[in-house]
Design a protein that fits this description.
about 400 residues; alpha+beta; seven-stranded antiparallel β-sheet; five-stranded mixed β-sheet
Amino acid sequence: MIRAYKFLLRPTKGQAAALTDMLRDHCTLYNGALQERRDAYRHSTKTNIKYGDQSAQLKEIRAFDPERQGRWSFSSQQATLRRLDKAFQAFFRRVRTGQTPGYPRFKGAGHFDTVTFPKDGDGCRWDSTPHDRQTRVRLQGVGHVRVHQHRPVQGRVKTISVKRAGTRWYVVLSCDEVPAEPLPPTGAVVGIDMGVAHFLTTSDGEHVANSRFLQAMSDELAEAQRHLATFPKRTRQRTKRHRAAARRVAKLHGRIRRQRADFHHKTARALITDHDVIAHERLNTAGMTKSPAPRPDPEQPGGFLPNGAAAKAGLNRSILDAGWAQFLGILANKAGSAGRLVIPVDARSTSRTCPECGHVAKENRITQAKFQCTACGFAANADHVGATNVLNRAGLVLCDVA
């Protein structure tokens, strides 16, 4: 199986400056390749330039600018050009399918945060020994950078990526041939219902509290954002004070992100340890957090009727703060490694269906927390009912497969 390992880098001051230069120069290469494609399409009878055409120019580019382009790995620069090519392939695919195209855009210095080395030993080398918690990674043009390896790496290292997150640097290893680590069977199955009042509720009636990390730090984050917004546009030229204010906001967002990921990992691990089969709703988080469409006022040209956008914005913020998509992805990855089975089921009407008689009605769910069937009178917690229905639907899926 394939697994990714993410470790914190501990570069020296000089190495951190070199890593920043590496991102900047790869960003310049990305933007230059994008500009070439735009110009060729506009001025050369709509000629399309492919990855192979731009990769063939790398040798000349490195010879022309040895200080900014020639010092970095040739393979990593090819990976940056492939990244642009994938963006164009996705753009044309969306055009063909009638979706919003989203033409590839230029990357700012603060938004290009990853450089990939396609092969271990080509421009980079992972130096590690078993049970070594303080290893190093060698990067061309940077040197041997210390790595805080908090767990052993298994399998064969295929690709190495260097990523910047705020003021921190990380190395991400993509490994294949990673052996599975199956857990002993428990004989237990469970269904889970994702929510906002509770992060999740199991079919056993257990509630896992929603930590609301973004809400908990909203005051501190709002103060930092207000301070960043006080800088007038004419002085936002990366001055020392502006950079410090931006770092403060990025630091707070990074802390929230790490807290949420830690909570997701621990919650998923507890579910995987105690159950052989976990069923959950198949959620379309992007669709659920979409802003409501405007409602034009037929009696007033140019006017609009209330569409509940303010209330929907609060719900969207709560859903995104919970991070359902990230949690379900972590749950699936851990289940695959542990030999557990995760079953996604249709999420429609799980909290409106009576688990006793099967009656489906909007009126069954009286409030956010209370469920009472209008047909048979069955009453229970609404989230518990949803988790029970999820488990029942997973049982039907298993029966169909068998």
